[in-house]
Specification:
3 strands, mainly alpha, three-stranded mixed sheet, 245 residues, 7% strand
Length: 245
């Protein structure tokens, strides 16, 4: 039997890491010599629409494979169908028919998301972030289409910046996981939402943290079509769909 080829510069040296990337490549027809490039798996998960069934063996060999697969199954259940109502296809995963839910459930999920993120920031010894999150006095529930987020730097609050830049790096800071680093790009391009990405990837980080999954409540918001906006330092706004529209 031939010995494995030595790793080239920039390629992972860990056998498990190499095996996962090779399995991913085999699932979508990426040649083995190409699976280690940075952009090899952009759009990877889109290849398994509408049901995600072809992903069942991709993470074999990882101890958290079942949990990763279970979360992806939830994703495909609510957003796997990429057909648009008037024709065409969605490039990203979009919840087009969010299930009607009691507003109290949305409020509870929003409050829980903030609590769990605060605990994670405390655990990660991020004093500035934990203080900023503790400064949120209200998670406000609104109905209807969410307005645009601020684009100009002068209009962005510190809390907005925290959710835009700081929180998306929080889960992986204390997790020395080269596999997770390789997967962040394909997971991000599921819908270009770092909070959804970190919910789906949490099993890769969980053993490095004591806190319960801080992104689970966010998935509940996302799957019901809820969007969050931040315009104040002490308030997060949640916009839920108008069910009569």
């Amino acid at each position: 039997m031939n010995a494995p080829s030595p790793a080239q510069p920039g390629e992972p040296t860990d056998p498990q890491h190499r095996r996962i990337l090779t399995q991913m490549g085999a699932a979508v027809g990426v040649a083995e010599q190409d699976v280690f490039s940075e952009d090899a798996f952009v759009g990877f998960f889109q290849s398994f629409r509408p049901d995600g069934l072809g992903l069942s063996d991709v993470f074999d060999g990882l101890p958290m494979a079942d949990d990763l697969q279970a979360r992806l199954t939830r994703l495909f259940d609510v957003a796997g169908d990429d057909r648009r109502p008037r024709g065409g296809r969605d490039a990203y995963f979009v919840v087009r028919r969010p299930q009607r839910v009691d507003p109290d459930q949305i409020q509870a999920a929003g409050d829980d998301w903030l609590r769990r993120l605060t605990r994670l920031a405390v655990e990660c010894d991020d004093v500035d972030l934990s203080d900023r999150l503790r400064g949120v006095r209200r998670v406000r529930l609104l109905e209807g289409a969410a307005p645009k987020s601020p684009k100009e730097d002068c209009d962005k609050t510190g809390l907005f910046r925290a959710f835009d830049s700081d929180i998306p790096t929080l889960a992986g800071r204390s997790a020395n996981s080269p596999i997770a680093e390789s997967l962040r790009t394909p997971y991000y391009f599921i819908t270009c939402d770092p909070h959804l990405r970190d919910y789906l990837m949490w099993p890769l980080y969980a053993s490095h943290h004591r806190t319960e999954d801080p992104f689970e409540p966010y998935f509940d918001l996302w799957r019901h079509g809820v969007k969050f906006r931040i315009y104040r330092e002490d308030q997060i706004d949640l916009y839920m769909p108008r069910w009569d529209e």
